[in-house]
Write a structure and sequence with these properties.
The protein has 88 residues and is mainly α. The chain is built from one helix and no strands. The chain starts with a helix and ends with a helix.
C-alpha cells in the first residue's frame, strides 16, 4: 500500500501532467484558429476581387450600351431637325 507522501507526489504529478496537457491543447487550438482565420480572410479577399471585377465589367458594358443608344437617339433627332429645316 502506498504511503501518504507517495499519494501526494502522484497527485502532484497528475496535476502537472493535466496542466501541461491543457496548456498544449490551448496553444494548438489558438494556432489552428489563427490559421483558419487567415485562410478565411485570404479567400474572402480573392472572392471580393473577383466580384468587383465582374461588376466593373457589367457596368462598363451597360455604360457602352447606354452611350450607343443615346447616340442613335440623337442621330434620329438630328435627322428630324434637318428634314424640318429643308421643308421650310
Amino acid at each position: 500500500m502506498p504511503s501518504e507522501s507517495q499519494k501526494k507526489n502522484r497527485t502532484k504529478l497528475q496535476y502537472k501532467l493535466v496542466r501541461t496537457m491543457l496548456l498544449m491543447l490551448g496553444v494548438v487550438a489558438a494556432i489552428l484558429i489563427a490559421l483558419l482565420v487567415s485562410v478565411s480572410v485570404r479567400l474572402s479577399a480573392k472572392n471580393l476581387a473577383a466580384i468587383e471585377s465582374h461588376h466593373r465589367e457589367a457596368l462598363t458594358t451597360k455604360a457602352k450600351m447606354l452611350a450607343e443608344n443615346h447616340a442613335i437617339a440623337l442621330k434620329g433627332l438630328v435627322w428630324t431637325t434637318r428634314s424640318a429645316m429643308s421643308s421650310v
